[in-house]
Design brief:
Elements lengths: L1 E3 L5 E3 L10 H16 L4 E4 L4 E7 L7 E7 L7 E5 L2 E10 L4 E3 L5 H12 L3 E8 L4 E6 H12 L5 E3 H7 L1 E2 L10 H9 L4
Parallel strand pairs: 1-5, 7-9
Antiparallel strand pairs: 1-2, 3-6, 4-5, 6-7, 8-11, 9-10, 10-12
Length: 193
């Protein structure tokens, strides 16, 4: 299948399955968000990536196969919604590294989106799972944007695990549902309530 990005750059993926890359964190967040919704705690959704289908193969009537598609626009972040009357927007990333998160894993349009959410009074952050050490962190959007701006000015090309430990917030709650990130959101953004 070939996927054409908004830059008109055509990328062809042959016999490589990227479908489950990073899905562990995504599945955990989706299950958590379902729990939040069912229990009327928050309403947070995974944003769909808008694509335009160009070529479809119909080997059988009910078995359509997409052969070529284009991303209509760069996506913003992965999740958004509302919690305690505040807009929440965040990006979720899963990496295998034990020591650092490569900052280029977040795209400039995502950083600009996080910046705009912050400037408009919303809550913005990233959630990063270091899968090899099974640790999940929430990193505030303001810090993420500042680190990215530093990267653009020839600064560090990654965010060290030390930064996540010292300036981020580890998400450790994993009981009824998988990743209770709103407990950390409460500590970081709703301190005075």
């Amino acid at each position: 299948m070939s996927i054409n990005y908004p830059t008109k750059k055509k990328v062809v993926h042959n016999d490589v399955n990227y479908a489950n890359r990073g899905m562990s964190l995504e599945k955990e967040l989706d299950e958590t968000n379902k729990f939040y919704q069912v229990h009327n705690i928050a309403l947070i959704y995974k944003k769909p990536t808008p694509i335009q289908i160009v070529k479809v193969d119909y080997p059988k009537r009910q078995k359509a196969v997409i052969k070529e598609a284009y991303f209509q626009a760069p996506s913003t972040t992965d999740y958004n919604g509302i919690y305690k009357q505040k807009y929440i927007d965040f990006e979720a990333k899963e990496i295998a590294s034990k020591t650092a998160f490569p900052i280029q894993n977040i795209h400039i349009h995502q950083i600009e989106h996080l910046r705009q959410v912050i400037n408009l009074g919303g809550i913005a952050f990233i959630i990063v799972k270091f899968s090899s050490i099974n640790k999940v962190f929430l990193l505030d959007g303001k810090l993420t944007v500042a680190l990215y701006d530093n990267f653009l000015n020839n600064g560090r090309k990654s965010i060290s695990i030390k930064t996540f430990i010292e300036k981020g917030h580890e998400i450790t709650e994993r009981c009824i549902f998988t990743i209770d990130y709103l407990k950390v959101v409460d500590k970081v953004y709703f301190i005075n309530e």
